[in-house]
Amino acid sequence: MHVTVGFVLAIVAIALAFDFINGFHDAANSIATVVSTRVLSPSAAVVWAAAFNFLAVFLFGTAVARTMGRGLVDLAVVDANVILAGLAGAIVWDLITWWQGLPTSSSHALVGGYAGAAIAKAGFAALLFPGKWIPTLVFIVVAPLMGLALALLFTVALSWALRRSLPRRVDRTFRVLQLASAAAYSLGHGSNDAQKTMGIVVGLLVAEQARFADFPIRALHLVDAGVVPYWVVVACGAAMGLGTVTGGWRIVRTMGQRITKLKPFGGFCAEISGAITLFVTAHFGIPVSTTHTITGAIAGVGASQRLSAVRWGVAGRIVWAWLLTIPAAAFVAALSYIILHAVRP
Fold it and tell me: Which of 28, 38, 120, 153 has its CA 20 to 30 A from that of 328?
């Protein structure tokens, strides 16, 4: 297959478009709680979330990006068609679930798409299994449970500590504190989700490094998938921030209103729990789902009141969408690779 510099750069642009779609698809993660508690208006909330999504690229390392770039798929089988097909699988699944208002994981859609395209080219031997696949798959379950457990713990502990406080004073205090917790969660979101696309871009440029050996812009000639250039970090962070500003109102309704009813106190507990989970996983380079994490945290807040406070039917529908994400995105990506390979052999 003859790959041109222009073709590779077009795929980089598509990867940034995915980051933008990730931003508006996952905007609900960052703003659903703060909007549903009416601490911020929707328009103010998306700007608040977008700003901290972008700031995250300057505050955290690139462990998650390195996992995506070289920890899941053998770079020896990666080429432009594999990356393009993987992005296609992730984007198509993201758009389908966004239209249905389901808060599925853009992260797992990208992981599934990348894996599906690689398998279509070289079989299951293309996956670096077990490696980073084990923590990635395990945390599909652990991340929402960790968010749920922390939210339940914070809610019960703070409820006991504030049991003699006036409800109006508690509400007023946590309206202010929720601004900080929403910011912390948006930082966690940016520290994890934007990095996945960074890894994909770096993997693409390393795989096609020969195209850029004599290219005048030397920053595009990458030879080590373990090093994420500064321009990739900024570009991916900016694309996600812009996408978040666009907003995802269908998913906001599901996350902020349909799972359980939240007040500023509960919103604070959910966001802080989600943020802690994301900070820990980003540190260890585990590409978890921010969607799963905050959904578990919201359910934990509801469960602290009584189990019936959580609309488990809605939560069950979300779980089914979670389970389908990796195989569905992988299937679309594999089909996309077959078509691309036929068109560009």
Answer: 28
Mean pLDDT of 260-265: 71
Long-range Cβ contacts of 318-324 (<8 Å, 24+ apart): 318/102, 318/103, 318/104, 318/254, 318/259, 321/97, 321/100, 321/102, 321/103, 321/104, 322/104, 322/105, 322/108, 322/140, 322/289, 322/292
pLDDT at 39: 78
Domain residue limits, the chain: 5-343
Length of the chain: 345
The reported pLDDT for the residue numbered 33 is 73
Of the candidates 198, 197, 200, 191, the residue with the CA atom closest to the CA atom of residue 280: 191
Instruction: Work out the burial of residue 239: count CB atoms within 10 Å of its CB; fewer than 13 is exposed, 13-18 middle, 19 or more buried.
Output: buried
Q: Cα separation of 57 and 113, whole Å?
A: 24
Residue with tokens 């989700």, as numbered in its chain: 193
Say which DSSP state 37 is in: T
Q: What is the pLDDT of residues 6-49, one digit of tens each?
A: 999 999 999 999 888 877 766 656 677 777 777 777 777 778 88
Whether residue 5 is predicted with pLDDT greater than 90 in this model: the reply is no
CA 188 to each of CA 158, 240, 271: distance values in angstroms, whole numbers, following the listed order: 22, 13, 10
Question: Could you give the C-alpha distances from 205 to 167, 171, 201, in angstroms and in order?
Answer: 56, 50, 6
